[in-house]
Every structure is written in structure tokens, then in C-alpha cells.
């Protein structure tokens, strides 16, 4: 591995250390320096730029389980936000060259330009196996130093806040509302709560004739219910859903008005909590583009893209504390809830990422389902 061929950042010894004292040596990649965050793994083979720019990874150091990352470089088209959101990045083999007709720079240059600290040459299989056994935990990427330096680094890691209880969504949300125009004739007005929304979700709504008004995460209920709109989209986002309680009142108020609501990832968890359900932290989470999910209504298996460390408590038979909700999708790896639907209101959600950026396209029909619910609600209002 010759890092110097990919840019001016010559190879420097670096270390990835976890809060339990386990460490992995490698070489500095991307921006120089130190960084702290929750260390998690992603099983996708491609789509690293979409992963890097997903706001749901805020506060996390992401390790890729696929060994070769960076071979097609980086470009301006595959970003899901304005720039990388990860706290750090871990790869096994750094390519000496990159090749893709859309590439404008190497992955290393991209990380350096955005100030993202990374490490290459890590035994990512050993790291992933350790996280699968011990769970996602706090960690750091830093220059390798003396044993005394490592002791100080471990103290600093253990002084970092845990993911539980953190409201990170408000920190990545837009500071002001903005409008994404419909592609072609406008059919519906949709409000979108931005808890870390990915650009591809907004694009898919716009392509279906929705003019989308994106709202800051802190928008009060009164500012939402006073608007004239057809449906609500609740986005993905980072952090603990239990720390994002202010939006629950909005969901409940709109449910009383029979407003169609579609939530994904964090939005799914917030819908679960709004109707009495509970959320909990998974041992190591679900992150990658190859997670099998069963649709309970017809048994269809969808291969899904996922990125979450929390889940709604329950199973296919019951959502404890939320009798008005039923499970619609179940994860085939561990049986966790992957989809919810209100029994009487036009409200539904999924834990995974149907916008498929990156990932398969099995679940894009869910955006069409929101359109169908808005059409049905509109027709019912006209008949009344």
C-alpha cells in the first residue's frame, strides 16, 4: 500500500483505539490529527461517499467491512448532504489509484479537503468481529505514540459522551426552512422534518410531483398544524430517539387530523414513540446495503439499506405500549421491527432506507405509498 501515490499525505503510523482498551494499528489516511466517536461497521461493498455524507453517521467512526474502499474516487454527484458527516473513517486497503469517469478526486483528497481523519491498513475483519461481540463503543483515531500517549488517549475516549441520550439530530438539521420544487406538475404539498435528511429522499418525493418544504428539527407544533399541506415526511437522523421528544406532539396532532405521515429510520422510531412505543439501543446496530427484511402482509423479502443503532421494541405480534400500531416488516437476521403502520390512521414508517443511496431499489415503492395515502385522503375530503 503506497499512500503517497494518492496525494501529498505520506504514510504515518496511526492507531484506532476502543474504550475497552483494544487497539488496531494502521496508517494515517485523509486528514491528519485525532478524532473521537462511536465505532460502528458498515457491510456495503460500494457507496462509501453516500455513507460518508449521510447525516445519520454524525458522531460515529465508520469502518467498512469490504477490504477495498476508494477505488472509484469521489465526485460531486453522490453526496447525500453538503459534505462528510462521519467523525472518522476506517478502511483496510487504500488504493494506489482510482478510476471512474465521474471521479473528480481521490478518496484521500476528498477526506483531506473536508478535514475527515481516517486510518488505513486496519484489520477490519478483526475489528468487526470484536464489535459484533462487545458491541459498538466509543473510540478514537489518533497518531501512534508511546504507551503513555495511549493511556492518555484511552482516558480521553472514556470521557466522551455515550450515544444513549444524545440529541444529535438538531445539530445536523437545517437552520431555516427551504423548498424543493416538484419535478413536473405539482400534485401535493409535503412538509419534511429534517433530522438529518438525505438529499435522495427529497429527490424521490419531488419526482413524484411533491413540492417539499423542509423544516428545521426544532419547528414547534403550532407552526406545522397551521400550514396547508397534504402530507408529512419524517427523515432519518443521528442520535437517540428518546432525546428528540419535541416532535411527538406534532405527530399526535397531525394524526388527529388524518394527515398522511411517512417516517424512515429516526422518523420511524419517533412514530413508534409518539403512539406509546419504546426504543432501545442495539448491541452493534444494522448498517449496510444487504439486510433482508420480510414484508409481513405478503411474505415478500426485501433487501434493504440500513443505518441505525436504535430500534422500536416489539415483534411481529405486538408493539408493547402502542396498541394502535402494528408491525409491517421484520428483520430476518434478528427479528427486530423494520416497519410500522397505524391501524386506523394514514401513518406508516420503516426502519431502513428506501431511498437506496446507497443500496438496492427494492423498497422505493414506499414513496409511492405516501402518494397513494395523500390521494385517498384528498378524495375523502372532497367527498365530505
Account of the 3D structure:
The protein has 384 residues and is α/β, with parallel strands linked by helices. It contains ten helices and 17 strands. Helix 8 (248-256) packs across helix 9 (266-274). The longest helix has 19 residues, at 365-383.
Descriptive key words:
17 strands; 384 residues; 10-stranded mixed β-sheet; alpha/beta
Which band does the percent of strand residues land in? 25-35%
Strand order of the largest sheet: 8-10-9-11-12-17-16-15-13-14
Alpha-beta content class: alpha/beta
* Main pleated-sheet profile: 10 strands, mixed
Termini separation: 69 Å
Record the SSE blueprint.
Elements: E1 13-18, E2 23-30, E3 35-42, H1 48-52, E4 60-64, E5 88-90, H2 107-113, E6 117-120, H3 124-134, E7 137-143, H4 147-158, H5 169-172, E8 178-180, E9 188-194, H6 199-207, E10 210-216, H7 221-225, E11 231-234, H8 248-256, E12 261-264, H9 266-274, E13 279-295, E14 301-312, E15 325-331, E16 337-342, E17 347-350, H10 365-383
Parallel strand pairs: 3-4, 4-5, 5-6, 9-10, 9-11, 11-12, 12-17
Antiparallel strand pairs: 1-2, 1-7, 2-6, 3-7, 8-10, 13-14, 13-15, 15-16, 16-17
Helix pairs in contact: 8-9
Amino acid at each position: 500500500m503506497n499512500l503517497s501515490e494518492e496525494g501529498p499525505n505520506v504514510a504515518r503510523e496511526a492507531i484506532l483505539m476502543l474504550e475497552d482498551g483494544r487497539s488496531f494499528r494502521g496508517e494515517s489516511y485523509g486528514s491528519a490529527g485525532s478524532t473521537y466517536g462511536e465505532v460502528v461497521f458498515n457491510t456495503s461493498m460500494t457507496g462509501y461517499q453516500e455513507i460518508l455524507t449521510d447525516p445519520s453517521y454524525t458522531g460515529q467512526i465508520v469502518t467498512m467491512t469490504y477490504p477495498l474502499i476508494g477505488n472509484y474516487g469521489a465526485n460531486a454527484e453522490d453526496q447525500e448532504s453538503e459534505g462528510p458527516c462521519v467523525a472518522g473513517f476506517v478502511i483496510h486497503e487504500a488504493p494506489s489509484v482510482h478510476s471512474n469517469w465521474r471521479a473528480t478526486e481521490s478518496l484521500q483528497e476528498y477526506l483531506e479537503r473536508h478535514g475527515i481523519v481516517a486510518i488505513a491498513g486496519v484489520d477490519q475483519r478483526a475489528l468487526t468481529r470484536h464489535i459484533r461481540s462487545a458491541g459498538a463503543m466509543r473510540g478514537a483515531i489518533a497518531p501512534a505514540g508511546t504507551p503513555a500517549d495511549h493511556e492518555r488517549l484511552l482516558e480521553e475516549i472514556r470521557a466522551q459522551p455515550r450515544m444513549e441520550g444524545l440529541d444529535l439530530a438538531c445539530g445536523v438539521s437545517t437552520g431555516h426552512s427551504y423548498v424543493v420544487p416538484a419535478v413536473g406538475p405539482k400534485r401535493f404539498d409535503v412538509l419534511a422534518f429534517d433530522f438529518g435528511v438525505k438529499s435522495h429522499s427529497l429527490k424521490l418525493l419531488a419526482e413524484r410531483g411533491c413540492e417539499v418544504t423542509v423544516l428545521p428539527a426544532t419547528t414547534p407544533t403550532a407552526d406545522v398544524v397551521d400550514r396547508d399541506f397534504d402530507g408529512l415526511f419524517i427523515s432519518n437522523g443521528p442520535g437517540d430517539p428518546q432525546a428528540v421528544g419535541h416532535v411527538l406532539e406534532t405527530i399526535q396532532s397531525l394524526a388527529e387530523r388524518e394527515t398522511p405521515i411517512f417516517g424512515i429510520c429516526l422518523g420511524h422510531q419517533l412514530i413508534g414513540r409518539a403512539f406509546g412505543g419504546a426504543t432501545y439501543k442495539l448491541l452493534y446496530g444494522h448498517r449496510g446495503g444487504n439486510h433482508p427484511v420480510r414484508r409481513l402482509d405478503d411474505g415478500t423479502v426485501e433487501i434493504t439499506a440500513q443505518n441505525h443503532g436504535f430500534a422500536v421494541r416489539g415483534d411481529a405480534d405486538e408493539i408493547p405500549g402502542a396498541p394502535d400500531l402494528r408491525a409491517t416488516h421484520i428483520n430476518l437476521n434478528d427479528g427486530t421491527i423494520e416497519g410500522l403502520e397505524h391501524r386506523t390512521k394514514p401513518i406508516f414508517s420503516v426502519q431502513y432506507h428506501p431511498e437506496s443511496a446507497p443500496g438496492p431499489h427494492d423498497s422505493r415503492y414506499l414513496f409511492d405509498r405516501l402518494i397513494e395515502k395523500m390521494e385517498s385522503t384528498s378524495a375523502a375530503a372532497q367527498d365530505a
